[in-house]
Amino acid sequence: MNWETKTKEKFDTMIAKIPVFHRRITQEIVTKKSEEIAASRKSFEVQEQDVLGAFFSDVPSPFYSMMVRLLEQTGFDYKKYGFPKNNNHKK
Question: Are 18 and 26 in contact (CB under 8 A)?
Answer without folding.
Answer: yes
